[in-house]
Specification:
The chain is an alpha/beta fold and 337 residues long. The protein has three domains: 53 residues, 434 Repressor (Amino-terminal Domain) (Orthogonal Bundle), CATH 1.10.260.40; 130 residues, Response regulator (Rossmann fold, 3-Layer(aba) Sandwich); 131 residues, Response regulator (Rossmann fold, 3-Layer(aba) Sandwich). It has twelve helices and twelve strands. Helix 11 links the parallel strand 8 and strand 9. It is elongated and about 85 Å long. The protein starts with a helix and ends in a 10-residue tail after the last strand.
């Protein structure tokens, strides 16, 4: 069924039906509801090319992502994508994933926005000073940030309380008697890494433990970098008795380095991973973790915020902060007296 056939069935003009389906305000609510209900009942699907020409809309939301090999195997990331896809699909929209090289990421934003390829963008892994968000705000282009950043004006965002989550990890370890606690962190230009580092330092201070500079090491966002950071910690004259890893991407490298050094997490050293860790073939233990719960629902929430922004909701009303939770495993243990 095409638009003219639907209009004939409703005994309305094609223009009125088109305006009703596209939410134009000059069509009264009763007519709009009747048109939408009939379109759904009769299985009408709009011609997307014609719709784009008529309205300038693509019915798609984009996410531009500099993929690493580990991303496609990350169940949390995949759940977030699945949740966003579900919610957008319910609204008749698609999620378009655009892969970008790290060094050309901002240029990819320019191409996607200037080419009118999507109606809005979800921005992942926000940075403390994020040129991507600044660019989108300057263009008044609809976006939702997955994470927070330093912007002068309000903007839509969804995030977990990274500081509070890191406090959960530190409180767990200090409560077990640990005082020599190290942090393996992502690059500090990433906003989540900066927030988690702050939570780590506040937690140590609250427990009366020293924050040693040599215990704060960057483990990047890859297993290899995580392993190198851990090897540096173990080589210290006084190595830590516990390690907190602020991301689950470099965490496999941390665990590998411990095994190569002959250490068993939960027996010889305590480890807590922010984001958890998938079971590995060589791992028999459950990793103690600070988790960001319900990632699929988080994806749906990102999409919901995006839809609200497209419908004109003020940016200041579109922020959501969820609480992480600590899930006990077998890789942390009280310090022997």
């Amino acid at each position: 069924m095409n638009l003219r056939q639907l209009a004939a069935h409703l005994q309305l003009s094609p223009t009125t039906v088109s305006r009703a389906l596209n939410g134009f305000p000059e069509v009264n609510q009763e007519t709009r509801e009747r048109v939408v209900e009939t379109a759904v009942r009769l299985g009408y699907r709009p011609n997307t090319v014609a719709r784009r020409l008529a309205t300038g809309k693509t019915d798609s939301i984009g996410i531009i992502y500099p993929f690493e090999p580990t991303d496609l195997g990350d169940p949390v990331f995949l759940d977030i994508i699945a949740g966003a896809t579900e919610r957008l699909g319910e609204a008749g929209m698609d999620l378009v994933i655009v892969s970008a090289a790290v060094e050309n990421e901002l240029e990819t934003y320019h191409r996607v926005v200037s080419g009118g390829r999507v109606d809005g963008l979800i921005v992942a892994r926000t940075r403390v000073h994020d040129a991507r968000l600044q660019y989108l705000a300057s263009k008044n282009f609809p976006f939702v940030a997955h994470g927070r950043s330093e912007l002068a004006d309000p903007y839509p965002w969804f995030d977990y309380d990274n500081e509070a989550g890191m406090r959960l990890a530190v409180d767990q370890l200090t409560g077990e008697g640990h005082r020599r606690i190290a942090l393996v962190h992502a690059p500090l230009e990433m906003n989540f890494a900066m927030q988690r580092r702050l939570g780590f330092l506040v937690g140590l201070n609250a427990a009366g433990a020293d924050a040693r500079s040599e215990y704060l090491v960057c483990g990047g966002l890859s297993p290899k970098e995580g392993a190198v950071a851990t090897q540096a910690l173990l080589a210290l004259p006084e190595p830590p008795t516990a390690i907190v890893v602020d991301n689950n991407v470099s965490a496999p490298g941390v665990m590998t380095a411990l095994r190569q050094a002959g250490l068993v997490a939960g027996r010889d050293i305590s480890v807590i991973v922010f984001g958890g860790l998938r079971s590995q073939e060589t791992e028999t233990s459950e990793v103690s973790a600070v988790l960001q719960p319900e990632p699929r629902e988080a994806g749906r929430t990102l999409a919901e915020l995006m839809l609200a922004r497209l419908n004109g909701r003020p940016a200041a009303e579109l922020s959501r902060l969820w609480k992480p939770v600590f899930v006990a495993g077998t890789t942390d243990t009280p310090l022997p007296v």
